[in-house]
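Continuing the series of single-chain predictions for the mutant panel. This is the parent chain; the variants come on the following pages.
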Amino acid sequence: MSLQSYPHPLPGKLLLAGILALWTLLAGAQELGQDSALRDDIQDIKQQTLELNRDLFILEEELLYPSDTQVSVFLSLDVGEFFKLDAVKLSIDGKVVTHYLYTDRQLSALRRGGVHRLFLGNLKSGEHELVAVFTGFGPKGRDYRRATELVFDKQSGAKHLELKIVDSTATRQPEFAVREW
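Parent structure:
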């Protein structure tokens, strides 16, 4: 489930109410001509709306993904000349949980040390299998498709996994690995 889709209408309605209140104050400010005091009130309401939105986002994440069942999968890369990432498809227990296409700008950020959270979800305790399929362009510009897998044991508490793509100068090929944090 994506964080952009609200399973409960309350956060969206509260944010909408804050925006409507701000719009009403702005319209009133133009009519009354009390610019200075009203601008201060509007700035206060803007700040309160931003803080409320942040608090609702944090609350939603805590409710949707409690730490006892939470699993996060991140992607990092150290890629030079042997592999240019195009897409990643991530499956857990045989079910595709995400498929992501990368832009040049996103790849540039990853090469500079960025980390992308591919997946955040809930899994029950026990053994699970993660499979990641990487597609892109390998040496000499040829299409390249590789997969890596990890069988991991989910216990209580959050589980963090990292998909890592690294150039191997010894084999002149990219290496794909999964590690647990």
